[in-house]
Design goal:
Rossmann fold; seven-stranded mixed β-sheet; 11 helices; menaquinone biosynthesis; lyase; AB_hydrolase_fold
């Protein structure tokens, strides 16, 4: 996968690997990472996004294989994994596969650990297939406007929504559709049990106004950190608070 490595501005304490959410790219975390000066950073473009738009994936296991290959290509042997939304779901999947000797810790912002009910998974996959069809068939700005009017993004202001639509419209709709189906929450295995057995620290970040994911976080065996003045997209709505939280997690 395409990636950008940024060395630490101070004595390096290790590498932080950053995974963006659906519709994002490697720039998504850079404002937060700029305040984490004691770590090297690897910003990754997930398949179908940014510099990896030409890459596709068939499922979570395939994305995980590509992630491991990317880490190997940069000779990253010890790392913290930080992921938002889709990136958080991929990070949780990676951490629970049992082949991660270099993983030192996991930080997830607004990532779903998986649906336990098979009917719910089927319904979600059908819903994501409908979104994928919209990305294929409608102007991307129209689809993005509808996407960011979903309840989980209810805390966005009109100005914030318009800024995100403008930013995300640079993506390639067909590539997004492929990735959305491959990594639908309906195709994600429930990860509650393996997450409870993680041998490394597990931290969960959540905007204080993100009621859905606050409730989900309460079901996890993770250290919960609430970000003030933020909803589902906490690192964009309050990057300074997220950076402060991450520095406290990463420094010990």
């Amino acid at each position: 996968m395409a990636a950008y490595f940024q060395p630490a501005r101070a004595a390096a304490r290790g590498v932080v690997v950053w995974l963006h959410g659906f519709l994002g790219d490697q720039r998504e975390w850079q404002a937060v990472a700029a305040a984490c000066v004691e770590h090297d950073h690897l910003f990754i473009d997930l398949p179908g996004h940014g510099g990896s738009a030409q890459l596709s994936a068939v499922d979570f296991a395939h994305v995980n294989e590509q992630l491991i290959a990317t880490l190997d290509s940069y000779n990253i042997l010890n790392y913290w994994l930080v992921g938002y939304s889709l990136g958080g779901r991929i990070a949780m999947f990676h951490a629970t596969q049992g082949d991660t000797p270099g993983l030192r810790g996991l930080v997830v912002e607004g990532g779903h650990p998986g649906l336990l009910n098979a009917d719910e998974r089927n319904a979600r996959f059908l819903a994501d297939k409908q979104w994928a069809q919209r990305f294929h068939n409608e102007p991307i700005e129209t689809v993005l406007d509808a996407w960011y009017r979903q309840p989980v993004f209810a805390t966005l202001t009109d100005t914030q929504r318009e800024a995100l639509i403008t930013l995300r419209a640079r993506n390639k709709p067909a590539a997004l559709a492929t990735m959305l189906e491959a990594t639908s929450l309906g195709r994600q295995p429930p990860l509650y049990a393996p997450l409870a057995q993680l041998p490394v620290p597990f931290h969960y970040l959540c905007g204080e106004r993100d009621t859905k994911f606050r409730a989900l976080a309460a079901t996890l065996n993770a250290s919960l950190h609430l970000i003030t003045g933020a909803g589902h997209n906490a690192h964009r709505e309050n990057p300074a608070a997220v950076a402060c939280c991450l520095n406290a997690i990463l420094r010990p």
